[in-house]
């Protein structure tokens, strides 16, 4: 994507029918650190990579509890993410107060999308620079939605956003057919593995990733570091035991992942013709 | 789950209108019955119409059940009471959604609660004691109707503002039916 004369205002169309400011907002999402989500019939798991600016600082909070039955993971401008989380919490609590019932996730997601759309059609506003993975439970089951700065939303079985998310997506694409009937613990393991894919060789520690779960009989909560570290340790043990067989696979897996990672970072080159939000 | 009401509309203390339906179905799952000011009841029905309309417009497989409608009404009644401009009604809200039965009541000042049997006005004094004695978890529909008729008969005998013309509504998972008006046999 290159600078051009149609990208100054969000209210200016390009001759090809694109709104560049909105697309730039989606770029901001791609620059944020990775967040992934996956769901089964009864549970939804969110995970994200937490990078801290320096060893001295704490890391960005990227997973927010919106209500007992809804949580959100963000990627992109975290400040925008916080503001939208506050909006979502407000909507949930107002609905709960009036109807004594949890707000259906699908409705919250539509309200969020409509709010994002407003910012793509006012000359004095800018689009929100954050992508949200909304995980929630309601009468019709477990749901995972992705809300985009363009005002679009989609429902997913599993999804990943942010930098190097392609690696996680590939992993999820291979495994998603099993997710519907996965147990809660398997789902969490899959989430952690997907996060590991985005780290591209860096060691996976519970200090750099955060996992949150919501499910039937389980209100939305973030798993504590100790629990996450335990689960990570179980993989490492399993990986060591399978060493001879998996070593070559792991090596080729990593290479393939890095290639895809760089391709994704070079961004729009493959998608130059089609506007991202139309995909 | 049966519910019943008399078809009366009063003009002050005169029983002026004798064919007023005071029970209405709300959405797919609930039934609302009211006593008190009929015009305020009609106003409430308008609010609920709008509520159900917006709920249906989402077109997303979710629908407002009796619990949600009951709470919405509580909010409305309480808010009006706070503004010193109450809707002069006592409401009974019942329904079945996903196999779960619900029965609740809201008064004109916003007092609300759920119970296995509720009543408005004189019903609280004359009918509920009977229901307390004779209600049990496994009442069949026919027995429920007999029990209600027993209560309505007592009310007919003892409440000066009652006429012998009532309707029974039946609410089940499949939907609801409101009977045609009929009279009770009395033993003067």
Automatic annotation (TrEMBL), chain A:
Annotated region described as Disordered, given as residue ranges:
240-279
The principal localisation class reads: cytoplasm
Matches recorded under SUPFAM superfamilies: N-terminal nucleophile aminohydrolases (Ntn hydrolases)
Residue ranges of every copy of the Proteasome alpha-type subunits domain listed in the record: 6-28
Q: Where is the composition biased (Polar residues)?
A: 255-269
Q: Where is the protein situated, by its record's location annotation?
A: Cytoplasm; Nucleus
Q: Which UniProt keywords apply?
A: Cytoplasm, Nucleus, Proteasome
Keyword check for Cell cycle: no
Q: What does this protein do?
A: The proteasome is a multicatalytic proteinase complex which is characterized by its ability to cleave peptides with Arg, Phe, Tyr, Leu, and Glu adjacent to the leaving group at neutral or slightly basic pH.
Quote the protein name from its UniProt record: Proteasome subunit alpha type
Q: Which organism encodes this protein?
A: Gossypium aridum
Automatic annotation (TrEMBL), chain B:
Gene Ontology CC terms, in alphabetical order = proteasome core complex
Q: Which organism is it from?
A: Gossypium aridum
Q: Which PROSITE patterns match?
A: PROTEASOME_BETA_2
Recite the UniProt keywords alphabetically.
Nucleus, Proteasome
Give GO BP annotations, semicolon-separated: proteolysis involved in protein catabolic process
What is the protein's given name?
Proteasome subunit beta
Q: Which SUPFAM superfamilies match?
A: N-terminal nucleophile aminohydrolases (Ntn hydrolases) (SSF56235)
InterPro entries documented for this protein: Ntn_hydrolases_N, Proteasome_alpha, Proteasome_beta4, Proteasome_sua/b, Proteasome_suB-type
UniProt-listed Pfam families:
Proteasome
